[in-house]
Amino acid sequence: MSQAIRYPEILEIARRDGKVTVEGLSSHFGVTLQTIRRDLADLAEAGRLERVHGGAVLPSGTTNIGYEERRNLNADAKTAIARACAARIPEDCAVFLNIGTTTEAVATELMHHRNLLVVTNNMNVANILSHNPDCDVIVTGGSLRQSDGGLIGNITTSAIAQFKFDFGIIGCSAMDDDGDILDFDAQEVGVSQTILTRSRHRMLIADHSKFKRSAPARIATLKEIDTFFTDRPLSADLAARCRGWKTDVIVAG
What we know:
- By secondary structure, the chain is α/β, with parallel strands linked by helices.
- The protein is 40% helix and 25% strand.
- It has a 7-stranded parallel β-sheet with strand order 6-5-4-9-12-14-15, with helices on both faces. Strands 1-3-2 form a 3-stranded antiparallel β-sheet.
C-alpha cells in the first residue's frame, strides 16, 4: 500500500480516535514499524500531525491536547530547553515556575541548585523540587485544575502579587508570527501576566511546536520577555524584531 493511500487513512484514524500509535498502524496496514514512523514523520513535517511518544496526535488548533500527550510531545527538545534555562539561573535566588510540561522539565534541572526559593502554581513542580533539600518551595494555592495539577484563579494571582522574583519562568500554548504569546485558559493568562509584572528577569520557554499553533487568549508579546528559550531558530522577521526589542533568544539543543 502506497503512502498516498495510507496518509488519508492515518489522518482519519487520528480524527476518530484522537491518537494513532506506531504499533497499531503497523498492524492495521501490514507494514513495518519503521515505515509507519516515516509516515508519521512526514505528516508531522507537513503540519498534519504532532508526534508524541509511540505515535502521533492531531495538531492543536483552538483546543489544547491532553496533558500526558503534551508531556511526551517533543520531550528531547523540552529537556534541552530546560537545561539551557536552568544554566542561566544562579544559586541563592527566588524563582517562579508556572504551569506546563516544560517548566516541570526546568524543575528537574534545578534539582542540584542550592539555596533556591521556588514559588509555583504547579503541583507537579512542587513534587519534583520537594526532593531538593536545598530548595524552599512555596505553593500559591488557588483552584486546582485536575487535568494538569495547575492552580489558577484570583487566590493564585493574589498570592503571586505578594512576591518579587529574581526570575519568572512561564510557558505558553502558542505563539503568533508577530511575537504574541498565547494560551487557551483566560485564568491561566492572568496568572502568567502577574508573574511577568512581579519578576526582575522574565523568561519564556517554548519548543518549536508552539510556532505552528493558535490559541485565543493573549498573555504578552516577546517584547516583554528578557530571555526566550526554544529549540529551533525563529523566522528571520521575528528574530529581527527580538533584536530590536532586546529580547535574548537562546536556541537549545
